[in-house]
Amino acid sequence: MRALVVEDDFVSRKLLQKLLSAYGECDIAVDGQEAVKAFKLAIKESNPYDLICMDIMMPNLDGQGALVQIRQIEKQSGYGEDKEVKVIMTTAVDDKKQVIDAFYKGGASSYFVKPIEPDKLIQELQVLGLVKKSA
Questions:
Q1: Among 14, 38, 82, 125, who pairs with 130 as Cys (CB 3.0-4.6 Å)?
Q2: pLDDT-based confidence at 79, cuts 50/70/90?
Q3: Which of 9, 81, 78, 67 is nearest to 39 (CA)?
Q4: Contacts from 70-75 at CB under 8 Å and sequence distance 24+?
Q5: What was the pLDDT predicted at 132?
Q6: Which CATH architecture group holds 3-127?
Q7: 34 phi/psi in degrees, rounded to 5
């Protein structure tokens, strides 16, 4: 699995990176602008991400805006829904409007309120088909 963690908070970013690195390569970005650049580069290099864990509230370009751009890049690159990157949106605020926007406007795969519980994140990765269930 190849993952991108997009998080402006250093501690949250490091925790997610450490957790996801156990399952494969894990890059980091500090805001939505960096995420879009990293995503474009991954597509250009024919080494796309399987997963993006992205904070919703960030400076420069928020997670919602970055997700919209990422989905546009996928369409322009000829990616069908079956090849779309799985995106887990994260936030410190449990706001129903953000959940609706993440799923219906942005095409997010999942949503977590921080602090993220590692066991629940791993379960979600299993549901999304990104990691195998342990025996």
A1: 125
A2: confident
A3: 67
A4: 70/35, 70/36, 70/39, 71/106, 71/107, 73/36, 73/39, 73/40, 73/43, 74/43
A5: 87
A6: 3-Layer(aba) Sandwich (3.40)
A7: -65, -35
